[in-house]
Amino acid sequence: MEKLLNDQVALVTGAASGIGLEIARTFAAEGAKVMLLDLNRDAADAASARLQAEGYEAMSLSADVTNEEQIQKSIQQAVETFGKLDILVNNAGLQFVSPIEEFPTAKFEQMIAIMLTAPFIAIKHAFPVMKQQEYGRIINMASINGLIGFAGKAAYNSAKHGVIGLTKVAALEGAADGVTVNAICPGYVDTPLVQNQLADLAKTRQVPLEKVMEEVIYPLVPQKRLLQVQEIADYAAFLASKKAQGITGQAVVIDGGYTAQ
Ligand code: NAD
């Protein structure tokens, strides 16, 4: 049976950890040649080496998604190495929680740069390549924080709301040239980012982690569980495939029922 992403070339940002790492692995398993881009060079190198050892075509790139020159070069490198660029996943991100009065402005600007300006920059430089090919798939990793508000997450929520707006505009601008642009909005996914948050909560409350799950996560998530990275990666693989041609400008929610309440 033909694989979902046979002979496709994908660039995934924030690919050294969590959701991005699983997306890179799943895309490779579905037949794609994958460039794993991350600020963390050692982790990106190790991840791509593991994929190569499994027999997949993978390559790592160390770059900062907020650096336009580095991102432009990374896209060029993908095209030079693999001959084209079919799929771009703007996934790099980070969390920081603080009330607005105490939120350092520099931190706010850094988070907007990583999770909103960076997807803009990557789309800006991927568009000419994809439009010339008359084919492309762009996926922006948003969040349920891009749809509803959360106290303490001024920068994260602003960036994630913004990236959904960017997704719609880019979808309109790519539509005539065969380029689709969508956002994925995960709820709580079991990744280092979320595990660290839960561990901090457990420490602050001086209770075991399981208690934090019972008291904080389960009341919010009707399925009473953290989502698994594979669930997000499987959906991303479908959106990145030729089968998803008709889906564009959408913010797709995968949240175990969180936002249904
Ligand atoms: P993670 O911390 O496990 O991985 C994020 C990766 O991004 C890291 O490898 C990090 O080095 C990289 N990165 C950070 N800043 C970068 C930069 N400037 N340039 C290049 N790389 C950079 O996080 P995760 O939980 O896998 O989250 C991935 C994405 O999914 C983020 O955009 C996050 O907001 C989003 N998301 C996560 C969850 C969740 O529950 N984990 C829920 C909704 C949305």
From TrEMBL:
Ketoreductase domain: residues covered: 8-187
Classification via Pfam families: adh_short_C2 (PF13561)
One MF term in the entry's GO annotations: 3-hydroxybutyrate dehydrogenase activity
SUPFAM superfamilies: NAD(P)-binding Rossmann-fold domains
InterPro entries on file: 3-OHbutyrate_DH, KR_dom, NAD(P)-bd_dom_sf, Sc_DH/Rdtase_CS, SDR, SDR_fam
A GO biological-process term: monocarboxylic acid metabolic process
NCBIfam families in UniProt: PHB_DH, PRK07231.1, PRK12429.1
UniProt similarity note: Belongs to the short-chain dehydrogenases/reductases (SDR) family.
Record's protein name: 3-hydroxybutyrate dehydrogenase
